[in-house]
Write a structure and sequence with these properties.
Layout (H helix, E strand, L loop, with lengths): L6 E5 L4 H12 L3 E6 L2 H13 L3 E6 L5 H15 L4 E4 L14 H29 L2 E6 L13 H21 L4 E8 L14 H9 L9 H12 L10 E4 L7
Helix pairs in contact: 1-7, 3-4, 4-5
This protein binds nicotinamide-adenine-dinucleotide (NAD).
Length: 250
């Protein structure tokens, strides 16, 4: 098993890619902690993993609150004794508010998508250092690399911040035996908070620009997160893997 005896915390683990990642990790032998602001949904994911024979736990995590991170990390370590893998997956869509000039929405995007990752690296990284090392995987996006219509500027800005923090954290944490990488999904199923980007017309236009001419599946992202979480990527740090069917290669 690729994650045997590892303990993993996944933020936003109740959502599409987070859930697929939690299930993949559990199948590969990890004890998985599903953290999400949607506590009932996180509980349902953990329950279904446990019923399938995996090891899972759920907790309420609001990635924007430092106290929520410290409580979550303490709970993981108290329950499982260590933290080996952190997936900073929680996020909100850049199309939730159709007002592309909203300053409040800019602040919200940076708070959840960028500061949420900073806090995860800070507290998850500290616990991992105490466990002797580990792997942090951050979810960025193609929106950090390319412009797309209808998406608030703050979304790409927040994801570019994730990419930059990934590199810097990889440098800072290497001495602690912690690798830090990012995965940048392209056209995946809409997020919980997607509005404009869930519109079929908008999606068809975007998918037309994908060399592979299709959207990705959440499992295809989870597989790359799994690779970066596992020891198979033991010499990979500070990088970002695009999972976009070639969209950003055009
Ligand atoms: N779906 C896409 O097309 C796409 C493309 C590129 C990048 N991404 C990124 O991938 C990640 C996962 O996206 P997804 O498609 O699974 O979306 P999703 O909406 O299905 O899942 C995101 C999860 O994050 C949770 N969340 C939101 N705010 C939170 C908070 N403050 N604290 C804790 N949890 C919170 C949500 O409840 C949800 O369960 C996100 O970071 C997203 O920005 C998604």
């Amino acid at each position: 098993m690729r994650l045997a005896d590892k303990v993993a915390l996944i933020s936003g683990g109740a959502g599409g890619m987070g859930r697929a990642t939690a299930e993949a990790f559990a199948r590969e032998g990890a004890a998985v902690v599903v953290g999400d602001i949607e506590a009932a949904d996180a509980a349902a994911v953990a329950k279904s993993i446990t019923e399938a024979g995996g090891r899972a736990h759920h907790l309420l995590l609001d990635v924007t609150q430092e106290s929520s991170w410290t409580a979550a990390v303490d709970e993981v370590v108290e329950r499982f004794g260590r933290l080996d893998v952190l997936v900073n997956n929680a996020g909100i869509s850049g199309t939730f508010d159709p007002d592309l000039s909203s300053t409040e929405f800019y602040d919200q995007l940076m708070l959840v998508n960028a500061k949420g990752v900073f806090l995860g690296i800070k507290h998850g990284g500290a616990a991992m250092a105490r466990s002797g090392g580990g792997s942090i995987v951050n979810l960025s996006s193609i929106s950090a690399s390319i412009g797309q219509p209808g998406i608030h500027l703050g979304y790409g800005a927040s994801k570019a911040a994730v990419r930059a923090m990934t590199r810097t954290a990889a440098v800072h944490l290497a001495d602690d035996g912690i690798r830090v990488n990012a995965v940048a999904p392209g056209m995946l199923p809409p997020m919980r908070t997607s509005r404009g980007s869930a519109d079929p017309v908008w999606r068809t236009k975007q998918i037309d620009g994908v060399p592979m001419k299709r959207a990705g599946e959440v499992q295809e992202v989870a597989d790359v997160v799994l690779f970066l979480a596992s020891d198979e990527s033991s010499y990979v740090t500070g990088t970002e893997i695009m999972v976009d069917g070639g969209l950003t290669a055009v």
